[in-house]
Amino acid sequence: MAFSTASTMNSGRSSPGFSGLRDSCLNVINDEELETQLLRPPGDQVIDTAAFESTLNPDVEVLAPPLTKRRKLVSKVWEVFTTITTLDGKEWAICKHCDKKYARSSKKETSNLLKHMGKCPSRRNGDQEKLAHEMTVDTTPVVNNNIASDKELNRLNVARMIIRHRCPWSMVEQDFSKAFLNTLQQQPTFKFQSQSTLKADILQVYKEEKEKLCRFLSETSGRFSLTINFWGLDSTFRFFFFITLHFIDNDWELKKKILAFKKLEFWGDYWKKFKAFKSMLLDWNIDKKLCCVTAQNMEEEDKIVREMKLWLTYQDSVPLRGKVLHCGCFIHIVNLLVHDGLLEVKDVFEKIMVCNSYIFSTPENDRKFRIAVEYVKFDGKEVISEEVPKNSTCSIELLEKVLRFREAFRLLQVTDLEFTLNPLEEEWDKITRVYKCLKVLAEVVQSISSSGSSSRCLTTNVFFPKVCSIYRSLCQWGKSDSSDIRLMAYKLKKRFDMYWSKCHLVLAIAVVLDPRFKFDIVKSWYSEIYGQEAEKCWKRIQDTLEEVYKEYAAGGFKNSISSSSPSLFADASTLNNPDYNMLDHLGMPLLTTSQGSDSGRYQKSELDRYLEEPKFRLVQEFDILSWWCVNTPNFPTLANMARDFLAIPISAALANPTLISDVLKIDPVSSDLDSEIMEALICVPDWLQIPEK
């Protein structure tokens, strides 16, 4: 904004010494003559008036004398300062806000002026947004490449902050946010951007973090397992597939990383879904390092995994020719079992809800019911007097609640002749039996959920006894004296058999690699489940285990060993060399070609030696990954198997169920974001934890 000299000098505050000088200048120089003097270059003669000005006004800061020639005033400081020339030829720069004046000089002419702009009290009380803008302007005529690079880095860091902490996008255009970040003393060159620029920065961060993750995965020794989730926005009829990567890294830590969140334009076409999934695997270059895929037990997902199995088996890149490639989601199948079981008592539950509505429909009915409740409590029986919400869907929690109505309803039926809707005793018995059975299933899911809520992820071996316990329960219910329980068990077991056929090999191999149990736990649980047929079943597991071991021992699926303990792994290769000469119990050389029993013992495979060695003690809190990290030198081939099979996810549930909804809450317009931005907002927060290499 341009100001005339007269108006500038008549406004603001002025010091007493400078006021007289200003008045004398105004009497001699009119506006036109003053403008001419400001534009013309000063003369060749340099007049030293420092002593004179110091006497006139001791508060004035005096700079070096001006040079004879000046370049054009291009710096932005001249939007805040105006210049005058006194009668003696001296040039002064005067602040338009506080009337502070500086003698002009050619050496670092704007340095003091720029410093004054930052600390001027009058400007600080004025336009803060203008202050933030002026402080970020580069006053140097030549652009510094390092400064430009720092600006871009700062912008990307702001984008990372917004992604990681779910900040609203509008903050980049808020005055106080800009004023705060623009005035940081550590980064005075930083300049905030608009929301459109922020979107470009987010995509740039996505690209950079994806490259980091790709490098990290390429350096990981083990194979990868995936979970697939298909997810839809009911309000917008948009559908996505959500891919999570599970693996054990070189430090023997179980990791899971969100790999992709892709929009689907073809919800009902499984072939196009497979093509999109295949394209994603090729993009990440992990198609030849897959071990297993876990998906919910849906028909379309089964078709997708079947196509994947054909593709990956053709290129011979999965163990056991794809026999263990597909695992169903354990949590999902148990929830389906509970749902099917609740259908068996749906009619009884609805009758109880009708009774509930009758009781709480009038104050008189409520009074009678509470009297019945007090009598039942006096007899020491468990009962509740809570009202169950109307139109409630039958669930395990509600069944547990309504069962405690039983005794109060029975007494109310005697005292209130109009209460004729109470279920029969046979119906109460049925719903009680079904509840006890379904409660077993719910407790298994609850135990897994509570264990998985800790910071330590669950390895695959943990699931074997839990899955077997459900299978055993279904078998026992099928032999129940109650016909309704036998019928329910038959339906549930039929559904569970489909899941068992997909996952039992993976679960058995994983639990054998647990040194606390080894193969004994498989024999024990199969005896519980199959009875007389147990030996035939566990021998098939044993044959499969040996087949997988031979594949890994032959090098077909050998992983590169971590370099964290090179000396230990060197010893391991020596120990497992079949041509290495051993010592007998007397310390004498013992050739492996001898026929002695000791020689035969040392020629046994890793798998045989592992199974024959004493088991680890049965402690509940056991870090199986640490055990394999330490024992890798003794069992390098089995360690490769353990790295792959212990990382297989048994549940395909989202790592963070509220993740997508959190993204949609970032901004009101987020629901309309394009798929690339949504993928970046969902994936990058998880990738930011990848350590720098």
TrEMBL record:
Lineage, top ranks: Eukaryota, Viridiplantae, Streptophyta, Embryophyta, Tracheophyta
Intracellular or extracellular location(s): Nucleus
Subunit structure: Homodimer.
Keyword presence, Acetylation: no
Protein name per its UniProtKB record: BED-type domain-containing protein
Zinc-finger recorded as keyword: yes
Source organism: Xanthoceras sorbifolium
Sequence ranges assigned to domain BED-type in this UniProt record: 72-140
InterPro entries named among the record's database cross-references: hAT-like_transposase_RNase-H, HATC_C_dom, RNaseH-like_sf, Znf_BED, ZnF_BED_domain_contain, Znf_C2H2_sf
UniProt keywords, alphabetically: DNA-binding, Metal-binding, Nucleus, Transcription, Transcription regulation, Zinc, Zinc-finger
